[in-house]
Amino acid sequence: MIGLWSTGNYIQHYKAPCDPKEVVIDEVVGQLLTVLLVSILLDQEMNSSVLLVCFFSFRFFDIIKVWPINLIDRNTKGPLGIMLDDVVAAILACVFIGAFYCLLLVYAG
Description:
Number of strands: 0
Strand content: under 5%
Shape: elongated
Low-confidence stretches: none
Mean pLDDT: 91
C-alpha cells in the first residue's frame, strides 16, 4: 500500500514517466516478497546461498518479463502497474525456486 501511494505521488508531483528508474520501492517489495515466500514454502533457514538464489531469480523474471509479467507491464498503467509486475515476478521466482528445490530433493537425495 505504501508503495502504491508513494509511487503515485512521485509520478504526479514530478510528472515522471510510467516507470521511473529512480523509484525502486517496487523492486524492494519484489525482493522482500521473494525471500518471504521462499522461506515459508521451503521452511528453510535463510542463508547467503538461498538469498542469492532469491535475488537472481527475482531479477531474472523482473528483467526478462515473461508472461504474465509482460502483459501486466504493457496493459496496467500507473502505480498499480509499476508495483504489480514486480509482485508477479516475485511469485514466479518462488515457483521456479520451489520447482528447482523439489528437483534437487528427488535427484540429489
